[in-house]
Each structure stands twice: as C-alpha cells, then as structure tokens.
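Hi there,

I know you've been waiting on this one. I reran it after we fixed the sequence typo, so this is the corrected version. Both the input and the resulting structure follow.
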Amino acid sequence: MAVTEDDVRHVANLARLGLDPERTAKLVGELNGILGHMEILRSVNTEGVDPMAGPPGESRLTRTDALSADPLLRTREAFAPASRDGFFLVPRLAAHEDAGA
C-alpha cells in the first residue's frame, strides 16, 4: 500500500496541521520508505524465535502485587481542618465594607 499526496493532505487536514505544498512530496517519500521497510521486516522468517520484552540479557524486575491502604479512603471531614453537620468550615473572608477601612 503506497501513500499518495492526497493521503498526506487528508491526514494533515484531519489533524489540523498546516502543511506547506512543497513539503507534501517529501512526506510522501518518507512515509512510503517507512512502509517499504515494514514490508521487508514482514518478510523475515521468525519461526522458532521467542518473543522478547526487552534487550537480551536484561530481566524485567517486577514488584509483587500487594494491596496497600489508599490515602484517599478517608471521610470527607478528614480533608478539612474543621467541619460541622457535614459542611466544611472555612475562615470568613473580609466583607466589602471592611476592605475600605
């Protein structure tokens, strides 16, 4: 499958990218080069090759799954310095009349 200039313009439009017309031809060549490389990789015989999750010789260290206490599992009142009847108490702000004094 080859990428055309129309494809590049369409995707740029969908992504709302500004695309210079002279850059379109270069992008078509680059994208077709990538797709060509993928075709070469697809043709490689990988029969009998185990899948790898990382570079050879490196192990992926994992931690044990352990359930820890969630710090957010508290009552609502625990998040506020003061509360009364299920409401948070906050300091009173200066009234407009107090601001001029």
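Quick highlight: The chain is about 35% helix and 5% strand.

Best,
R. S.
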